[in-house]
Amino acid sequence: MTTDELIHPKLTEAAHEPRQRGLMLLLLLANSSMLAVYTGVGSVLLPTQIAQIDPAGKVTDLGIVGGVSAVFATAFNPIAGALSDRTGRRNPWILGGALASLAGLAFLGSVRTALLVGIGWCLVQATMNVYQAAVTAVVPDRIPPVRRGTASALVGLGLPIGGTVGVMIASQTAERLQVGYLMLGGVAAGAALLLAGFCRDVPRREPSPPVSRRERLAAFLSALSHHDFRWAFIGRALMVLGYFSVMAYQLYILDDHIELPRKLAPTEAMAILTPVSMGAMAVSTVAGGLLSDRWNRRKVFVGLSAALAGLVTVIPVVSPTWPGMLLFSTLNGLAFGCFMAVDTAVVTLVLPRAQDAARDMGVLNMANAGPQIVAPFVASAVVTALGGYTPLFLLGGALSLLGALAILPIRGVR
Question: What are 259's strand-pairing partners?
């Protein structure tokens, strides 16, 4: 620390304020670009490409591709994070992951068989999770604890912003798939270049001591042995599984189940529904977090939002129309946004031990990633075996309602 910093700490903090604001905006851009790839490809381009290759088997094909690729995503995120920690640098992983994803997306846009599409999407998921792991680590590296709340809020806005941008790009390029893939890859690569160019790596830290598989498993089991944490984990897993079981097939739902206006194509409908849903999600994320803080009540927000997510799945069942789908998307976005915002606060309040907070939050992330692996397989089996999307909506709703009930046994939070 310099003499000026010792004598004038507040002046030094003020000098760092513009730099911190600039960094947080770059983090918002990086997270938004990443989510633009995930949603634009996963919701529009990939289902469109698979439907063109195999119209009769598209539901099963998408389920297999989505499920297998999610395994790659789940595996590569912690691996890349550990390697990034070991080297003590983030920028090479940010740049390398984004540029490799651009190459993978270019490959994905050029293939014409379901097998190669699956291989291409697995490559993109793997490389994007290298990018994601390094970008996520920038917050604890560079943002002081007193600014973490603001940083987390900005990172959270990456989903509605990136989701909307990604689906808009994908919808406009659905008839030119290779262009769409390259545009989304270019967005991620551009954001990575900006972040790496303006955000220098922090000095290398001492690597964490290695942890054996047995110790990691013991840590996992010890966290889930805690009553409140276990129920929070179950509720999150059920809600995420219900949400993604339906949303992964939204393009096919619009094509095969919903009665759209005559001149509205399914991809165009997606370009309308996504901003509606993401806008509602952004509003409820902020409102739910603020109101739950003000009233110091968490369980009621989590329970009611999960229950709402379950109940609104009935709307496309009884009214498989365009107005019905608009209403469903709005209410579902409100419910999911509020749930994810306030449930995260619940989890931080029921962590078993403060000194193991990072480890236990990592355990909770399995409730996010695991259901996204299972969801495509479950959804594909339900649609294929039960003949249509009505059973899929009802299953998604039932899972969300069970997620609402899972909040009730938690005792340590009001």
Answer: 321
Which residues in 24-44 are b (16+ Cβ under 10 Å) and which e?
A: bebbbbbbbbbbbbbbbbbbb
Strand pairing partners for 321? 259
| Position 277 pLDDT exceeds 80 | yes
At a CB cut-off of 8 Å and minimum separation 6, what does 129 contact? Answer: 72, 73, 76, 77, 80, 97
CATH superfamily, domain 16-200, is MFS general substrate transporter like domains (1.20.1250.20)
| pTM of this structure | 0.81
Angle, CA of 352, 357 and 363, to the nearest 5°: 80
Q: Is 285 helix (H, G, I), strand (E, B) or coil?
A: helix
- Tokens 């050029």 belong to 110
pLDDT tier for residue 297 given thresholds of 50, 70 and 90:
confident
Same fold: 16-200 with 215-414: yes
- CATH top class, domain 215-414: mainly alpha
* Crossing angle of helices 114-142 and 58-87, rounded to 10°: 30
Report which of 293, 65, 64, 33 is spatially closest to residue 166, judged by C-alpha positions.
33
Longest CA span, the chain: 73
Q: Determine the Cα angle at 316 with ends 247 and 272, to 5°.
A: 60
Find, among 380, 348, 339, the residue nearest to 70 by Cα: 380
Phi-psi region of 274 (alpha: psi -120 to 50; beta: other; left: phi over 0): alpha
Residue with tokens 């595996």: 75
Rounded alpha-carbon distances, angstroms, from residue 79 to 91, 129, 189, 199: 16, 9, 21, 23
Residues 6+ positions from 69 with CB-CB distance below 8 Å? 118, 121, 122, 124, 125
Query: Which residues have C-beta within 8 Å of that of residue 324, sequence separation ≥ 6?
Result: 258, 315, 316, 318
Distance CA 7, CA 105 (A): 52
For the chain, helix, strand, coil in percent to 5 are 85, 0, 15
CA distances from 287 to 31, 35, 106, 250 (A): 21, 22, 39, 26
Q: How far apart are CA 382 and CA 389, in angstroms?
A: 8
| Cα torsion through 140, 143, 149, 152, rounded to 10 | -60
Domain ranges of the chain: 16-200, 215-414
HSE of 112, CA atoms in CB hemisphere, 13 A: 0
Q: What is the pLDDT of residues 376-399, one digit of tens each?
A: 889 999 999 998 899 999 999 999
